[in-house]
Design brief:
Elements: E1 6-13, E2 19-24, E3 30-35, E4 60-63, E5 70-73, E6 108-112, H1 139-143, E7 150-152, E8 156-161, H2 175-193, E9 200-207, E10 219-225, H3 230-241, H4 246-255, E11 260-263, E12 267-270, E13 279-285, H5 297-315, E14 324-329, E15 343-348, E16 350-352, E17 355-356, H6 361-366, H7 375-387
Antiparallel strand pairs: 1-2, 2-3, 3-6, 4-5, 4-7, 6-8, 8-10, 9-10, 9-14, 11-12, 12-13, 13-15, 14-15, 16-17
Helix pairs in contact: 2-5, 5-7
Family: Belongs to the galactose-1-phosphate uridylyltransferase type 1 family.
GO cellular component, one term: cytoplasm
Cofactor: Zn(2+)
């Protein structure tokens, strides 16, 4: 057994009655259990007894001088699981026949990705993490253009398992379980934002093979980037060119229009005015809040049922589940905290029951989008679907 594997059973109380317990996998990666309020699980967790290979070296980033974008080249990802049979689900609790990533039965579990795109960032006291050879030296360093520019892809990638069940998605969870995941997102956002070299933290869920999902298990991921992403860089520029209260203006504009889908005390979901995708939904909190960690208990409590209704409404459009990307955009760690608002953007290429929108020449090559469905029409259909949803 690898001696890096440890279990810390000391519980940490989080919001809404959620309890956090920490452990280490056999190769030294972090594993965190988040127990539901009133969980039926006991306090004990098994030690990971697998004999694992050492962790891969941290990937390298290369700069595209035409755009300034940084591209992480992570060859270890070629070895990740690809549509394994149910009996070898790597996100299910370990069994005698399935040496999976999680040693014990769990409610919600978060662990470091075995084949990460970013990180690990720094060497540890135990020496089990390779040290970054050429880490970024601040945002100014990354903004300089140059042929052949490279840096180590410091950061961290985590997997968030919503349930021990082998099939499903966030939308199939109970309100209680959804609330536990929200607490996990908040806890991990705070922890990852404090890591050296991390500039932005991004929780998301990919759903469906059409999106590229390689595991059917209900799960999402959290990426911690060593730079501010291109999408957020453009957003910061838009805020600079308009007004620091841009998100408040967007919310007022959408709430007074025909595309609102759901509106609560703290959150509003809507089809955006200039939607790119056949199915595209945004959701905003009603106040300026930079990330999950900054949400109040009341905001987190309302988010669980309203988010579930939204996802189940999207699935009610057709007889089969709809593929989507659910992207939680958060403010960068060190800039834009007072202007960039936490916001959800759900996008799906599904334009009919049996048709997908493919990104061809104009969209893929030029970034010039052509919408297939008027946003007002999409909003009408989604509202009707959501009305029939029960939690």
């Amino acid at each position: 057994m690898n001696t890096n594997s440890t279990v810390n059973l000391e519980p940490v109380a989080l919001g809404a009655g959620v309890v956090k317990r920490t452990a280490r996998l056999a190769d030294g990666r972090d594993l965190i259990y988040f127990d539901d309020p009133g969980t039926t699980l006991g306090p004990d967790r098994a030690v990971d007894a697998r004999d694992l290979d050492p962790r891969p070296a941290t990937a390298t980033m290369r700069q595209d001088i035409l755009t300034g974008d940084w591209i992480s080249v992570a060859a270890a990802r070629q070895n990740r699981a690809f549509l394994p049979p149910a009996e070898l689900d790597p996100l299910a609790p370990q069994s005698e026949t399935n040496p999976s990533e999680i040693p014990s039965l769990y409610d919600v579990a978060v662990f470091e990705n075995r084949s990460p795109s970013f990180g690990p960032a720094l060497a540890t006291a135990t020496g089990d993490v390779p040290e970054a050879a050429d880490p970024p030296r601040g945002l100014a360093d990354l903004e300089r253009l140059g042929l052949g520019n490279t840096r180590t892809s410091v950061g961290r990638c985590e997997v968030v398992c919503f349930s021990p069940d082998r099939t499903g998605s966030f939308g199939t969870q109970t309100v209680t379980r959804a609330r536990t995941v929200i607490e996990a997102w908040a806890d991990r956002t705070a922890a990852l934002s404090a890591l050296p070299g991390v500039e932005q933290v991004f929780p998301f869920e990919n759903r469906g093979e059409e999106i590229g999902v390689t595991l059917q298990h209900p799960h999402g991921q959290i990426y911690s980037y060593p730079y501010i992403t291109p999408r957020t860089t453009r957003l910061l520029d838009s805020i600079d060119r308009t007004a620091p209260d841009l998100f408040a203006r967007i919310l007022d504009f959408e709430q007074s229009g025909p595309r609102v889908l759901l509106r609560g005390e703290h959150w509003t979901a809507f089809v955006p005015f200039a939607a790119r995708w056949p199915i595209e939904v945004h959701m905003l909190p009603h106040r300026q809040v930079p990330d999950f960690a900054a949400l109040t208990a009341d905001e987190r409590d309302e988010l669980a049922p309203i988010y579930l209704r939204l996802l189940r409404g999207i699935d009610a459009l057709y007889e089969t589940p709809t593929p989507y990307i659910a992207a939680w955009h958060q403010a960068p760690v060190h800039v834009g905290r007072d202007t960039v608002r936490l916001n959800l953007q759900i996008t799906s290429p599904r334009r009919a029951a049996d048709k997908l929108k493919y990104l061809a020449g104009s969209e893929a090559a030029m970034g010039a989008w052509i919408g297939d469905i008027p946003p007002e029409t999409a909003a009408d259909r989604l509202r009707a679907a959501i009305e029939g949803v029960e939690l």
